[in-house]
User: Fold this.
Amino acid sequence: MSHVFHAPIAIFSGAGCRQQLPECVASLGLRTVLIVTDAFLVRTDVIQPFLDRLREHGIRAEVFADVQPDPTDTNVAAGVAAYLAAEAQGIVAIGGGSPIDTAKVISASIANPGPLERFQGYHRIALAGPPVIVIPTTAGTGSEATKVAVITDNVRQVKMMMLDAKLMPRIAMVDYELSLSMPPALTAHVGVDTLTHGLEAYVSRKANALTDPLAQSTIRLTARNLRTAWSDPSNREAREAMAVAALHGGMAFTNSGLCLVHGMSRPLGAVFHLAHGLSNAILLPTVTRFSISGNPARYAAVARLMDLATPAHSDEEACRALVDGLAQLNRDLKVPTLAECLQHDVSAFRQHLRKMADDALSSGSPANNPRIPTAEQIVELYEEAWAFA
Ligand SMILES: NC(=O)c1ccc[n+]([C@@H]2O[C@H](COP(=O)([O-])OP(=O)(O)OC[C@H]3O[C@@H](n4cnc5c(N)ncnc54)[C@H](O)[C@@H]3O)[C@@H](O)[C@H]2O)c1
Ligand SMILES: [Fe+2]
Assistant:
């Protein structure tokens, strides 16, 4: 079987690499850019230094900050209007996955006007839009190096997953110093998202020789550093390791596919407005237990990468340790249970299960899973995740 590997044309990394933004913008021949970020980051001291440096280099920059966490079609439409009003030639996204995904889809919309739902699914974007430079502030979604964007359709209550090489950012600048300000809960949620990217990229039916080393690195770095980044937020070594893990995770999964955890997590987030990383974390132990029989050797390898088992343990023992270890990680990071997130209202939860299961299946991600579920099994898994504590 043959594979293709997509990535940005340049990736900057390490402390202070963000200072090179003006040179990056100039290297693409851009004189005017739209900075896409969110209202919180604009209020902090993150954005202004970028504006100052761009101005010093004679580059005009307008700021668009009307992006909510888990962004919507309305956010993208407002961003397109801001891009056109600014007469921009390219986009700089500064923020977590939400501003990054919004920036990608603003760019796609500039080249392909019309309703966003046309982009939902795989390879649905006809023309490449203006270039996007990405500077992530969470660690993270890995969106700085993926050809994926997730935008909520407000009317249909669906998180539209869009995958197309034309969504790949042109340049990524991964400067972990920007992640030092993340509070513990955000660190936990985005960190488990990173781990899930590594794990799902590694067990995916489309995993391959180019994605495996990146997926393994994601799993190993997260297992060794996430707890420290959570408990000691100013620990630079742990923050740097998590920023690299997030980047590796994005590069891995975008080239090998996400699986059932992400498939089930998007509908849960769309209906109940749970943050993306949180809904992944809640589902991860339950979905892993279900999926192991599809490829026990790979799941056992994940347990060993996480130092939950050694080569002396059988695959069966390692897989058991993996499910326990993932549940323990959630407890250590104080990730709330699904019942806690939904105020113990199980009947509201059950009302939506069938639609959530159908939306999960139609996203395509469950088809990459080592064990492919039916809609009925997905409903059962949501129920199991509810009972899981
Ligand atoms: N495109 C992809 O490949 C991909 C992959 C995974 C997730 N996603 C998407 O990414 C989105 C989630 O992104 P996210 O988890 O990075 O969070 P986010 O961008 O939604 O940000 C969450 C909150 O954290 C704040 N924040 C950001 N950086 C901070 C910092 N350094 N310090 C303090 N606060 C900070 C933001 O202002 C916001 O209030 C979801 O919509 C999800 O679907 C996309
Ligand atoms: Fe994710």
Remarks:
- The beta strands are 10-13, 32-36, 60-64, 90-95, 121-122, 132-136, 148-153, 158-163, 171-174.
- Residues 236-256 form the longest helix (21 residues).
